[in-house]
Give the backbone structure.
Amino acid sequence: MSKKLLILTGFMGSGKTSVGKIVAKRCGYRFVDLDAEIVSAAGRAINDIFATEGEQAFRLLESARLEQILTAGGTCVIATGGGAVISEQNRALMRARGVIINLNVSLDHVLSRLNKCTDRPLLAGENTLERATKLMNEREQFYSDADIRIDTDGKSVEDVATEILCRLKGF
Ligand code: S3P
């Protein structure tokens, strides 16, 4: 596999971070979690950024950090945040720089995985199902535009990582 940047996209709760760590380890690549990078650069939690500055401010931080990571060089597996694909600029950069691997997940799985989770501001509060459905429908066009798409429902993170490594052989 000659590609140096493996970029994982997918809805919240699709397993990008867990799968990304395994893929990185098996490839001998560095692992980078975009959300963790934003938190560390901003010195604040994602909930905090959303609450005080709003989603738009978060998106600017997200795009800036993504660009830094994608242009830094070296081999790396990047787990993006679920909303990184909504920016056209982010999508163009991801497409130009790496292999885009989408982890496809059903809403049922997302909701059961994130049931007790409090660190997803877009799903917090009332009407979670309606909001998650809307977000997923809006983003499907972007998630589906990937080099590799893996259905993750009912699979372990190890199995998903193995499937990615098999599919990467063509790249
Ligand atoms: C978001 C997903 C989150 C995080 C933020 C916004 C989204 O990342 O970036 O809460 O818009 O889908 P995960 O996909 O890692 O949960």
